[in-house]
Amino acid sequence: MKIKIADIMIKAMAQTLADGDTVLHGLGSPLPAIAMHLAKASHAPDLVFFPVSEGLDPNPDRYRLRLSSADPDHFVGAKAVIELIETFDLASKGKLTAMFLGGAQIDSRGNTNLTCIGDYQRPKIKLPGGAATSFLTPLVKKLILWTTHHSKRVFVDRLNFLTGLGYEEGKDKEVTIITDKAVFMVEKGYLVLKSVHKDVSVKDVVENMSFAPIVGKYGVTTTPTSEDMVLIRNIDPDGIRFSEFEG
Amino acid sequence: MGVGETIGLIHDGDSVTLSGVSMVRAPMAFVKEIVKAKRKELSIIDREPGIDFDILIGAGAVKRVRFAMLGLELLGLAPNFRRAAEQGEIEYLETTCGAITNGLRAGAMGMPFVPVKGIIGTDLLPLHEKKGTWRVIDDPFSGEKIVAVKAIIPDVAVIHVQKADKFGNASIEGARFEDVYKAKSAKTLIITAEEIVDTKYFVGHPERNTIPYFYTAAVVHVPKGAYPTACYNYYPPDYGFVKNYVSMCRAGRFDEFIERWLRGEEDEN
Which Pfam families match (chain A) (predicted)? Predict the structure, then answer.
């Protein structure tokens, strides 16, 4: 079976996490959920895994990805019930180290909009909403943003609504953006290209953004190993991870 | 007591919160009763609701909705909510998970507000300051700016649980979300339960009692009361049901869905 873009994104997400990180994923987060399993099963065994389904450290051998990230089936092998509010308490204490969040619009500082396209009072499109974004983005040390639709529509000059804070001057905070084409980090308030995925050109990356990222020294995004792929396919035999790429 | 007999505890114009998140443990049988009883002008409030809120909005029961996220995850945007928000049919107030959960916790604690970190610098803040639901204050000890979130005290909370006794002692198994805070902050608490157990179930195992009887105004036995959302230890979410709901809504057949659902036909799939 071929390695797909989803798998490369999962690997890139996993690589942002270090051993000992305490990590939360929210609803509608198939790629982050697999990435957290992948990190914990490989380089980060002491990662603390908080799923929105509230079962602490689910067992990867029995975990199967579902259409809802809160599916109670994700309780398999969980060691405790951790209410979401408890992970928020940890965040307030600076003890939630990493969070994965999406962005319907992302600007050059890694600020995000998940609220609406157009005016808030009379939106062209009312998006589902930012969930924990406004609360958590100023509190976590590692903010990992993702989009499966790398385009000018997503990478905008000006957000229609500022739901989440990206780069914040003087703060110990690492902002990574993982798309279906490339990986970026926000450095000193600018979006810097870190790597492009296999078979993607830099031209393709840059031309599909409304602003110019900083392109200096960059690499090719690490492709998952065959071992990684065994874990990814065991967790998601039904290919639910691909559904975000549709539409 | 039947689920229909408790509907009198909810009035037109009430603020209502419901248990669960997304496709997990929403009190769907009770939602059906609200629609049947044609309740109007409700203010509905929850952290991350889904099909429960979307049905209430589609059925015209809602004046105002407050949420941190309202959608159907990988199954798409919530069709009625989206239309109603875009057409100006309802008032909506987006919030953020850490604020709404702590607002409910403040309600449960009997505190007028709680300070909540984060949020400052986002566009949600001016919206809520205007509505009077949040205020930036100075921490009286450090002097730093912090957001005060006003306590959320719903008129009614409807919480679906796995087990309860006839007195309203209730046991939530698995994820609790903010349901215990919702139960304790609301002025009136309605419990719907998969199973009614003897009080002996709690005696000797008091840790099973997540919401004790003195909070509870009414308890109703409703097997499959969360369906098509999930109830841990009882049944998974019915994703096929939600997919069908979305495609019927998209085809302009929401009214037909509601008629069939009220007659119980949608639940038989």
Answer: CoA_trans
Distance CA A184, CA A177 (A): 5
**A245 in contact with B, Cβ within 8 Å:** no
The reply to whether B142 touches chain A by the CB within 8 Å rule is no
Residues A32 and A205: their CA atoms lie apart, in Å, by 22
**B101 CB within 8 Å of a chain A CB:** yes
Predicted confidence (pLDDT) per residue in B148-164, tens digit: 999 999 999 999 999 99
Residue B59 CA to residue B56 CA, distance in Å, equals: 5
Q: Assess A120–B contact: CB distance below 8 Å, yes or no.
A: yes
Cα–Cα–Cα angle for B144, B146, B152, rounded to 5 degrees: 155
Cα–Cα distance for residue pair A58/A61, rounded to 1 Å = 9
What are the structural domains of chain B?
3-94+153-268 (3.40.1080.10), 113-150 (no CATH)
A and B: number of Cβ contacts within 8 A: 176
Residue of A nearest to B92 (CA): A121
Written as six digits, the tokens of A2 are: 């071929």
Which residue shows structure tokens 């009770």? B30
pLDDT tens by residue, B47-84: 999 999 999 999 999 999 999 999 999 999 999 999 99
Q: Answer yes or no: are the C-beta atoms of B260 and B37 closer than 8 Å.
A: no
- The answer to whether the bond into B228 is cis (omega within 30° of 0) is yes
Q: The domain that contains A59 carries what CATH number?
A: 3.40.1080.10
DSSP A222: P
Residue type, B264: G
A-chain residues within 8 Å CB-CB of B23? 67-68, 70-71
Distance of alpha carbon A94 from alpha carbon A171, whole angstroms: 12
Selected for mutation to probe chain A from B124, B142, B185, B244 (highest A CB count within 10 Å) is: B124
Q: Which ipTM did the prediction report?
A: 0.97
CA dihedral B40, B42, B48, B49 (to 10 degrees): -20
Phi and psi for A151 in degrees, rounded to 5? Answer: -160, 170
> Which of the residues A24, A25, A27, A115 would you substitute to probe the B interface, choosing the one with the greatest number of B C-beta atoms within 10 Å?
A27
A55-95 pLDDT per residue, tens: 999 999 999 999 999 999 999 999 999 999 999 999 999 99
First-to-final CA distance of chain A: 23
- Report the number of distinct structural domains present in chain A: 1
Rounded to the nearest angstrom, the minimum Cα separation between A184 and chain B is: 22
How many angstroms separate the CA atoms of A13 and A47, rounded? 14
